[in-house]
Design goal:
It is built from five helices and five strands. β1 and β2 form a beta hairpin. It is elongated, with a radius of gyration of 34 Å. The chain is α+β, with helices and mostly antiparallel strands.
Length: about 250
C-alpha cells in the first residue's frame, strides 16, 4: 500500500476482475488525468495573468511616479522664472532637474536656429551631476552621429531617440527640439554614456515638456533683450527731442 501511495497509483484491481469494471476504472483514470491536466493549465494561466497584472501595475505606478516628479520639477522651474535670472541660470536649473528626475548621465542645451548648434548650458558632461562652467562649454564634443540627429530634428521638428547606436563607442542618446511654435530655438540633447541605458519613450515625453519650459525661458530672455535694445533707442530719441526743443525754444 505504501508503494502504491508513493507511486501515485490511481487505484489497484483485485483478481479476478471483470471487463466492465476494468473499463470503468480506465475511464475514471483518464477523466482524472484530464481534470488534473486542466487544473495545471488553469493554474499556469492564473500565474501568467497575475504576473502580467503585477507588471502592468508596476509599469503604471512607475509612470505615475515619473509624472509626479515631472510636475514637481516643472513647478520648481516656474517658481524660479518668477524672479529675474540669467538665461544660463534657468537652463542649468532645467538640466539639473531633468537629470535628477530621469537619472540621466548627461544633458546639454544647444542653441541655434539651424543645424549649427552651440552648447549654452550643460550638466554631467565631465563629472556626474555637475554643471559645466561656461568656459568649458566650448570643450563639449559633437560627434557626427549627433550632428546627423541635429539635422533630422531641425528638418522634421521632432525628437530623435537613438536607443541602440550602430557605433558601440557611442552611448544611447536622444535629441529633443526646443520650439517656439514652429521656430527652432535649439535642442535638448541627453545621453547615458556611463550607464549605457537607453532613454525610454516615456522619458522622451518628459524631456519634451521640459524643452517647452526651456523655450519659454529663451523667449523671455529674448524679450528682455529686445526691451533693453528698444529702451536704448527710446532714450536716445527722447534726448534728441529734448535737444531740439531746447534749440527751438532758444
Amino acid at each position: 500500500r505504501r508503494a502504491i501511495n508513493e507511486g501515485g497509483v490511481y487505484r489497484y484491481v483485485n483478481k479476478p476482475w471483470g471487463d466492465d469494471d476494468l473499463k470503468e476504472i480506465v475511464r475514471g483514470a483518464v477523466a482524472r488525468f484530464d481534470l488534473e491536466e486542466e487544473n495545471r493549465c488553469l493554474t499556469h494561466d492564473l500565474q501568467q495573468f497575475n504576473a502580467e497584472l503585477e507588471r502592468q501595475v508596476e509599469e503604471r505606478t512607475s509612470q505615475l511616479e515619473l509624472k509626479v516628479r515631472e510636475l514637481k520639477g516643472r513647478d520648481r522651474i516656474a517658481q524660479h522664472m518668477l524672479a529675474v535670472h540669467t538665461l544660463e541660470d534657468t537652463l542649468e536649473l532645467v538640466l539639473l532637474i531633468v537629470s535628477e528626475i530621469l537619472q540621466l548621465d548627461k544633458a546639454v542645451v544647444f542653441l541655434g536656429r539651424d543645424v549649427h548648434q552651440v552648447p549654452t548650458a550643460a550638466v554631467g558632461v565631465f563629472a556626474p551631476a555637475q554643471v559645466v562652467p561656461t568656459p568649458r562649454l566650448a570643450a563639449i564634443e559633437i560627434t557626427d552621429v549627433q550632428t546627423r540627429a541635429f539635422e533630422v530634428v531641425a528638418e522634421r521638428r521632432t525628437a530623435v531617440n537613438i536607443k541602440e547606436p550602430e557605433n558601440a563607442a557611442i552611448p544611447p542618446f536622444a535629441v529633443v527640439p526646443i520650439l517656439k511654435g514652429e521656430e527652432l530655438l535649439g535642442v535638448l540633447e541627453v545621453d547615458n554614456h556611463r550607464s549605457a541605458r537607453p532613454i525610454s519613450d516615456e522619458e522622451l515625453e518628459t524631456l519634451a515638456s521640459f524643452a517647452l519650459q526651456a523655450a519659454v525661458a529663451i523667449s523671455d530672455a529674448q524679450s528682455h533683450k529686445d526691451f533693453g535694445e528698444w529702451k536704448i533707442v527710446l532714450d536716445k530719441m527722447l534726448k534728441e527731442v529734448a535737444v531740439d526743443d531746447w534749440v527751438t525754444g532758444a
